[in-house]
Amino acid sequence: MSNEAVKSKLSPTYHYKDLEKQAQKKLTHEVFTYIQSGSGNEETLRANEEAFKKYKLVPEFLHDVSKCDLSISVLGQTFQTPFLLAPVGHLGAAHPEGELAVARAAKGYQVPYVASTVSTYTLEEIADALGDTPRWFQLYWSKDSELTVSFVQRAEKAGYSAIVITIDTPALGFREANLTNQFFPVREGYGLANYFQDPIFRSRLNESPEENWDAAIDELVKITFHPKLTWNDLAFLRKHTNLPIILKGVLHPKDSIRAIEYMVDGVIVSNHGGRQLDGAVASLDALPKVVEAVNGKIPVLFDSGIRRGPDVVKVISLGADAVLIGRPYVYGLAHNGQDGVEELFNHLLTDIDTTLATAGKSSIRTCQLPGFVNIR
Ligand code: FNR
Q1: How far, in Å, CA of 223 to CA of 41, rounded?
Q2: How far apart are CA 212 and CA 219, in angstroms?
């Protein structure tokens, strides 16, 4: 879609906080809090957004910016947008059409989608809704290794072109708000589909999920996370897939160096949107050291705290190859289903396009030239 077409579809007002409020109006207190909150005292959640204020762009003018190219390349694939959709589980809680509505919106704009293990719809259903849209599968590496292999092989068969292993979740973060509300999406029935439809998972149960729902959920909760997982286990997955493997949740430069040593194909600098280790470094503050350590050997992607066009441009300027957005598209979904996600895309694309033009850049790929971004 051309940028002019995108602009012509802009709705009159948009601000991230407005969108958050619109979503809040549509959701129960428990569900909104589940999406919006972070872990613990939410220090990291706040730090993620604050960090963006430290970095300033230094424009250069009198270049032809009549057309701005927003496309990027990662792992040999060209994406039309510099952002991908971060894996967000349990989207059926935000809207009945959940991941399918997001996937349909993504298809129209060719926004790459990273499907979560704990999606409300199966990875195959999401793939169908995406059509030819680029897609990756996010893996919560299960304690049940045969189930892990089954997920990866199903993803490969359904046209996912990379496996994103989330490494920052050996246990679930201490999310006090959800504990207070006693809201656990899996118990509410969101995020079960990939498990309940999986032949390996089903073979582990004495009775099918249809016969004994509670027992199936208990089994799922028992095996979803794998606190004993180590670097050496990566070789196991390598044996079972030819797809590129990307690690999500890298913050320490040493982990990015280990990733290269263990033949990983890419890393995502992320603190899970402030939902895991509270007190963790803001993602943006972690990025420059990871970029330096990786030194161009593998792609570096980024998420946590991106709300607007200049945020995307700052991250790319600091050396990331691409970014992922999380809560903004979930709020779009909650606000107005597929249309709400499309509206979010319109705004974000227009904002990025305008940011580039007003910075004197005709392509997002030229943002990494020295001197464009400064720390205050
Ligand atoms: C997430 N995130 C996440 N990550 C992941 O690897 N698998 C998952 O299933 C989920 N689920 C999930 C649910 C909800 C409600 C949120 C808000 C986030 C983390 C997500 O991929 C991403 O790292 C953050 O959302 C990025 O931060 P922002 O952009 O939301 O601030």
Answers
A1: 28
A2: 11
CB-based contact 175:39 (threshold 8 Å): yes
87 Cα: distance to centroid of ligand 1 (angstroms): 6
Degrees, nearest 5: CA angle 63-8-73? 55
Backbone phi, psi, residue 114, to 5°: -105, 110
Please answer whether residues 323 and 329 qualify as being in contact, where contact means their C-beta atoms are separated by less than 8 angstroms.
no
Q: Token pair of 279, please?
A: 């007190």
> Where are the chain's structural domains?
3-375
The CB of 87 under 6 Å from ligand 1? The reply is yes
For residue 36, give the ligand 1 atom closest to its CA: 17
Question: Over the stretch 95-118, which tens digit does the pLDDT of each residue have?
Answer: 999 999 999 999 999 999 999 999
pLDDT of residue 15: 81
pTM over cut 0.95? yes
Which CATH number applies to 3-375: 3.30.450.150, 3.20.20.70, 3.10.530.10, 3.40.50.10420? 3.20.20.70
Is the ipTM here above 0.90? yes
Say yes or no: CB of residue 138 within 6 Å of ligand 1. Answer: yes
Helix, coil or strand: residue 247: strand
Q: Which residue from 107, 176, 169 is spatially nearest to 138, judged by alpha carbons? A: 169
Helix-helix angle 16-26:327-358, to 10 degrees: 160
Å from CA of 67 to ligand 1 middle = 32
Taking 3-state DSSP, the helix, strand and coil percentages for the chain, each rounded to the nearest 5, stand at 45, 10, 40
